[in-house]
Amino acid sequence: MIGWALSPASTERESTPMSAPRRSTTPGEQPTHLHLSGPVTDREATRIDHALTAVLHHHDLGGVDTRVRVTALPGPDRPLLVQAVLGPGYALRTQIAAPADFTARVAARRLDTHLTRQSGPALRPWPDAARPPLAHTGPTRPITRHKHYRLLTGSPDLAAYRMDALDYDALLFTDTDTGDDALVYRAGPHGVRLARAHLLHPPRETAVAMTMNPHPTPIFTDTEAARRLCRYGLPLLFYTGPADARARLLYRRYDGDLGLVTAAG
């Protein structure tokens, strides 16, 4: 999944309808807020809810209000996409897709591993066998989601740690060392790579091992970027727009369409 920096002043357009939230009713447990999208059965939703709630209690986080979004995806094995976001004060999130019969177990394992790793400095391993990149060639897909945010401002290290905490594969941010729009993303021999919109020199010494993308950032319209991403089977595309030279991030969604992240301010 692709990332962006959260901001109070943000706009988002989403074309996929979603059901109204419901709350878990498991006695003695802090309810999770369940959002179901598509044909998700009550049994599947309950199993996912109970599995994630058990993990939260195991990590002494049972009192933390948690939002869980379950989305039915197209496919013969009825895959479900599960996103769990811990409540205020916890910048933690996980996301994983799996066949419906195994979703609760896979989502619980993902959350448990993620919470366990937060006690240390290591980022999650890359390549991520549990969540392969969404990358395949095919016809140009439409951009169905556009997120427009004030970007996180910080060092490449901060961006890499935020990307990991939110279980993203990429994070758009403003690099404090240069003031340039930049991207950290999962790639390369160390598992993290840095790209900037305009400045290509390597960062100062970083705590997180990372490589620098040495190639100039291309200039595309959004239509051109979508065509290139799909034609060459890319999981994401970092580019600047011809009108304002600001960084833009195009990425693949689990439903097969594309999402776009742009910088506000």
UniProtKB/TrEMBL annotation:
Recorded superkingdom: Bacteria
InterPro entries associated with the record: Ribosom_S30AE_C (IPR032528), Ribosom_S30AE_C_sf (IPR038416)
Compositional bias ranges of the Polar residues kind: 16-29
UniProt name for this protein: Sigma 54 modulation/S30EA ribosomal protein C-terminal domain-containing protein
Domain Sigma 54 modulation/S30EA ribosomal protein C-terminal: 141-192
Cleaved signal peptide residues: none
Span list, region Disordered: 1-39, 116-142
